[in-house]
Amino acid sequence: MFKHIQEAVAWIEHQVKFKPKTDLDRMIAASKALGNPHEAYKIIHVGGTNGKGSVVSYISTILDKHMSVGTYTSPYVLKFNERIKINLEMIPDDVLLNYINHMFAFNESFKDSYGETLSFFELVTLIALLYFKDQKVEVVVLEVGLGGLLDATNIVTPMASVITNIGFDHMQQLGNTLESIAYNKLGIVKQAIPLFTAVDQALIPQFKKACLEKNASMYHITDDMIQIESTEPLQFMYEFHHYQTGLQGLYQAKNAALSIAVVNYLFPKIPIRSIKEGILDTVWPGRFEVISRQPLVILDGAHNRHGVEALTYSMKTMYPQAQIHTLFCAMADKETSLMLEMISNISSSVTVTHFDYKRVAELAILLEQTTHPHKKAIEDPILAVETIVSAIGEDSILLITGSLYFVSYIRPYLLNKFNLA
Known about the structure:
- The chain is α/β, with parallel strands linked by helices and 421 residues long.
- It is built from 15 helices and 17 strands.
- It has an eight-stranded mixed sheet, sandwiched between helices.
């Protein structure tokens, strides 16, 4: 058994991340052995390529004002405990330590009875589901880890399913076409359970077919339902009401509208005032996060082509005259060449960097993939930030992007540098 939270988290993080599987039998068996904790509360199940965390956060912040709500998200930005929250508060270290010790022992006994151990994500998911049951929460907003069909969270039967959007990411596991990726994401649609989505129009026939097969109602949020009124702060009108978000980036208007649609349908008695306050109060670090105004420093965890496309569109629309200097770092299994091409199209300069993480892309490869005429490689990301900030003008922007893991690494330094810690 572990005595300190650091060694407990280290153990769980060193478990096999994902195990090959063709069904959910292992997760179903483990959950049954623990008493099926997910049956103790209502669940909103949130999947999609990008925006899942933002939607989970919007919905949770709104519901927090009216009921006890658990949230389960991944990955974390600052601390492992961020994955599991009740009423927006992270699971405390001592409580998390107890649950990890419990799962350590359970994992050993499960191996004896089932013949194999659980994966990292299965273990963390079970901890969250147990914690929410023990704390007697009323509703859980549950984020899908990867895909949907065979994701560990997909043992639940929710009160609603949500699919934010479909884009190219995790193609090794989900397929190389939007249709195959959508097929996996649509795996969370359950019999007679409504689906809410903001997916692009091109995939709607596939979504309608999947919902028809499951006798599930579908509610589709489209761009023409949302009117942007201001970009800084982000203000928009949806269904005849004006909203202001606590999060920035034009793509957040659609995430917020999707969240509002879910809440209005499931909890019609929640007043519009509370929904507006929840949208405004929502915090989600590392997503178009303005770290500093002088100079303007923006931190965004865009880590796939869909996310980078949304980011670059926001940057071009919001800062059409600005000189944008981008600091980029990404994981080796991402479409780094394409991402760098998109970033280069809006940037006055591109600097690639590196940090100590097992999956990070090699610096030389990132530099070679960068076609921008004003490019450089600086291995130390702290030195890279200092170099860029010292060289850019007052009207310039430092954009830091490419990976949520990189955002997690660099954010504490930036908060300290710009006196926000």
